Amino acid sequence: MTSQPVSPDALEAALRAIGAERYHNLHPFHRALHGGTLTRPQVQAWALNRYYYQCRIPAKDATLLARLPTAELRREWRRRLVDHDGDAPGTGGVARWLKLTDGLGLDRAYVESLDGLLPATRFAVDAYVDFVRDRSILEAIASSLTELFSPTIISERVAGMLQHYDFVTPETLAYFQPRLTQAPRDSDFALAYVREHARTAEQQAAVLNALKFKCGVLWAMLDALDYAYVVPGNIPPGAFRPDPS
Ligand SMILES: O=C(O)c1cc(C(=O)O)c2c(n1)C(=O)C(=O)c1cc(C(=O)O)[nH]c1-2
After folding, report:
1. Is 215 in the pocket of ligand 1 (CB under 6 A)?
2. What residues contact residue 100 under an 8 Å CB cut-off, 6+ apart?
3. Average pLDDT, whole number, for the chain?
4. What's the rounded Cα separation, in Å, for the pair 146 and 221?
5. Which tens digit of pLDDT belongs to each residue from 60-100?
6. Where are the domains of the chain?
7. What is the pLDDT of residue 243?
8. How far apart are CA 151 and CA 1, in angstroms?
9. Cβ atoms 193, 12 nearer than 8 A
10. Dihedral class, residue 72 (left if φ above 0, else alpha if ψ from -120 to 50, else beta)
């Protein structure tokens, strides 16, 4: 028996339920980051690894942009590339993330070299880029829907980190301010697209799975940080080793 599709409202409710259950705000490493119980080297490890996510996001968006069938869709999606890459050197989200790693005392050339990444960070982020390249346009767009939930976590993170860490300043966290308007704009568009185009039960199941997959990418990145930098003795060979000082 084939199942029947649900209404767009019911689909949206199911997507939001996935976020409520699986988004990375619930991960113990994020709770520790925002709650002030991490050390400076642990915060450095988070920012260094998360840099890989930031710098692969424009590549992920560019592979999708190339496949979008209409100028209208491409115009919408290309804004994301500008948000991340900027339109001049030193502008855009990736450059702003490097201000965050600078502010935490990490060497910029080392961060950009990607030499210190955890292996699992690389695997998780690459899996996201591959997913968007290989799956249907509908699934690719649905996989960006974690951004429905990011303004809440970003607000919690900025408030928590400023309150708890004397080595963090508002300038260091400047990356996050524009995301509070960019993410809702992007996720409103992606949600409207998914509500309109996920018509069959199979398509609806595929978009729910795409969002679960993406929650898994973000969760796996934090699992890797937790394992390597919270449990003593677990830093993989070649990965970032905090200064003993
Ligand atoms: O700080 C966060 O917790 C967070 C989460 C997410 C997300 O949910 O994928 C993104 C971002 N930040 C972000 O800054 C960002 O540029 C971004 C792009 C995307 C995407 O899937 O295209 N997600 C996110």
Report:
1. no
2. 47, 172, 173, 174, 175
3. 96
4. 14
5. 999 999 999 999 999 999 999 999 999 999 999 999 999 99
6. 23-229
7. 76
8. 40
9. no
10. alpha
Q: Is the CB of 153 under 6 A from ligand 1?
A: yes
Question: What local confidence, expressed as pLDDT, does residue 244 receive?
Answer: 63
- The alpha carbon of 150 and the centre of ligand 1 are apart by a number of angstroms equal to 7
Cβ-based neighbours of 53, under 8 Å, separated by 6 or more: 121, 125, 221
Cα of 147 vs centre of ligand 1, distance in Å, is 6
- CA–CA separation, 161 vs 167, rounded Å? 9
Q: How far apart are CA 190 and CA 213, in angstroms?
A: 16
Query: Does 208 contact ligand 1 (Cβ within 6 A)?
Result: no
**Could you please report the per-residue DSSP string of the chain?**
-PPPPPPHHHHHHHHHHHHHHH-GGGSHHHHHHHHT-S-HHHHHHHHHHHHHHHHHHHHHHHHHHHH--SHHHHHHHHHHHHHHH-SSTT-SHHHHHHHHHHHTT--HHHHHHTTT--HHHHHHHHHHHHHHHHS-HHHHHHHGGGGGTHHHHHHHHHHHHHHH-TT--TTTTTTHHHHHHHHHHHHHHHHHHHHHH--SHHHHHHHHHHHHHHHHHHHHHHHHHHHHHTSTT-PPTTS------
CA–CA separation, 73 vs 80, rounded Å?
A: 12
Report the topology of domain 23-229. Heme Oxygenase; Chain A (1.20.910)
What is the C-alpha to C-alpha distance for residues 227 and 27, in angstroms, rounded to an integer?
A: 12
